[in-house]
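Lab channel / #folding
Pinned by the channel admin:
"Please post every new chain as: sequence first, then the structure tokens as a reply. Keep commentary short and put observations after the output so the thread stays searchable."

First post following the new format, from NK:
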Amino acid sequence: MLKHRQHSRKNSALARKKKLRVSAHLDARRRAVCAKHRTHSKPPRVITESDFAAIVAQAARDDRWVVPAACDDEGRLIKHPVIGYSEFADKRPVPKRIELWLCRFPTRGGLYLTGALSGFFVIDCDSPAAIRWLIRMGIPLTQIVRTRRGWHVYFRWPKFPVRNSASRLHPGIDVRGVGGVVVAVGSVHESGFVYQWRRGHSPRDVKIAKAPRWLLDWLKRQNEAREAAPAAEARPFQGEVHPWAKFIIDAELAALAEAPDGTRNDALCRTAYGLGRLVGGGEAELEAVRAALHNIAREWPNAQHSVDTVNRGLKDGQLQPRQRPQGGVRK
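Reply from TO:
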């Protein structure tokens, strides 16, 4: 009897050990399968589609108007309107036009056009460091939109034109003025971030403030420097590009090709304007310059809007001709 009990206990112990080994093996297999599933499963889809109707309604509540934003082949928002800038330079879209946009672009983001017609310009801070610098410089209580990486700070349109610029005021800070755009409240970034009013800085909380004196003085100096450049007489191209002009053209095109995403439209506008001045002064051939600019911009999303930017910049630049200095070449 005693031997029988000892044998039973021995068998029970062996069975328990075997059960534990099987359980451990199953746990290991289950963990391996879970790890494999986590490795190969698709990441959760980020919702990037905007509700343009909601954006239009929000803009109406905020006493603003919006135009639909363009998007790339993957549906990501591009900071260019699907319509031409010049069409709404001096007039707002009529209700029928907005209804058409609602039908054609129901999932697009929205854009506010900055300028005299809208009544504001925007300081675009693209990083926490840029925000800290702006605060140290001093700004009044005004309307502010939270962006993915910073703020859009709104200021009342002054009595002189405000020009667009990228990182001239300070690194990471752009100015959106004549012909500029900013993303509208309610639009969705490709990361899933939604542009929203900063708490306590919406149109329901505060009015758009007048820009601080230091900022207005800087903007005026930018205009004065641009106007102080002596205008040359318009001349036709004589068939040969001088080394002075070639140096400038090559440098401008090389810088444009390296322009990072988010600054490309401003860079393209500036470059087209600058090279357009050479065209107006007879230092370069129009179609050759246009083709060189298009060759760079065609690799960017929304190439059609880049074409519009190039044409507008070249046209404006030709109105301010630039020619090589007489009595020696200065780079």
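NK: The chain has two domains: 52-224, 229-318.
TO: also worth noting, The CA atoms of residues 91 and 293 lie 30 Å apart.
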